Amino acid sequence: MTALKRRLLVLLTAALLLAGCGESAAQDSPAAEDVSLAITGGIAGVSQGIEVHPDGSVVLTGRKGDPAAPDLTRAEHKKLDSLLAAVDFADLPARSISATSADRFEYQLKYDGHSLVTDRSTDLGPADDLIRHLETCMRARQ
Question: pTM for the complete prediction?
Answer without folding.
Answer: 0.76
